[in-house]
Predict the structure.
Amino acid sequence: MARAWHLERRPDGMPTADDFALRDIPAAALADGQVRVRNLWLSVDPYMRGRMNDAKSYAAPFALGEPMGGGAVGEVIESRSDALVVGDRVLHMGGWRDEAVLPAREAQKLPAIDAPAQAFLGQLGMPGMTAYFGLLHVAEAKPGETVFVSAAAGAVGSTVVQIAKAKGMTVIGSAGGAAKCDWVRSLGADQVIDYKGEGSVVRQLSAAAPDGIDVYFDNVGGDHLDAAFATARQGARFAICGMIDIYNSGAPTQLRYIARTIAARIRMQGFLVSDWMGQAPAFYADMATWMAEGKLQRQETVVEGLEHMPEAFLGLFSGRNTGKMLVKL
């Protein structure tokens, strides 16, 4: 019998194992237009923390006592649709479970790019698209500019670093700890800040970018956002992707230097990757080219077994992952 993780209660602060329950899912016959997918890889992402709250947001909250959802890659094992056949590998949002039944229109056949299936949950999936459209379309980053990226060792940030270098930009990344900083350097970053090291992020960024930054790609908020305001050049653009520092605490970002928005004419814009899905073909074309040219690397942190899904999710908030955090079934 298939199994799925259910949200048992709304977390107060950092989630705990008791907030989740792994339960059997009753077998269901397929209706016309549906497919049954055996999941192979599951994604955990920081945005899922917001869906555990009973609050209005861009994505509906997870319902208590119901199966949770998220990105997944799997293989069609039964189909009542002409769009997908048994054996097709697909990307869909029926994650947090080992088997999903869903309308075929909600499953995307994996693009014909020579890459492992799980890459479509990371660099070739939602995180990669977030990096691509956030950097090039939202922030409008241009060759020759200086880009600051927080959480540069994560799935989104590491892809931002590499796209920026492929486009001829100077890149400053921030990561926590020597090993992650070394990896970000190996991706081509010109300077790397260790936010766990000596000195504030503001001081470290000021030293790394004495002439200031043109673009900030924000995955963190907090002191990283403060540092970006403090060092922004005139006309700087901030693409606000995430603020993982407040997802569990709810504490407001300090914004000590926000007044510089006026004098420096800073433009700050939040965005969702769903805003850009209509332009996915351009993303796939560029990424395939950069892969063929050897300009893209990726790293994954893999947790094995559906039983360890909450453990993998919680690892996002303690910096356990380098690159994309995945669960392999």
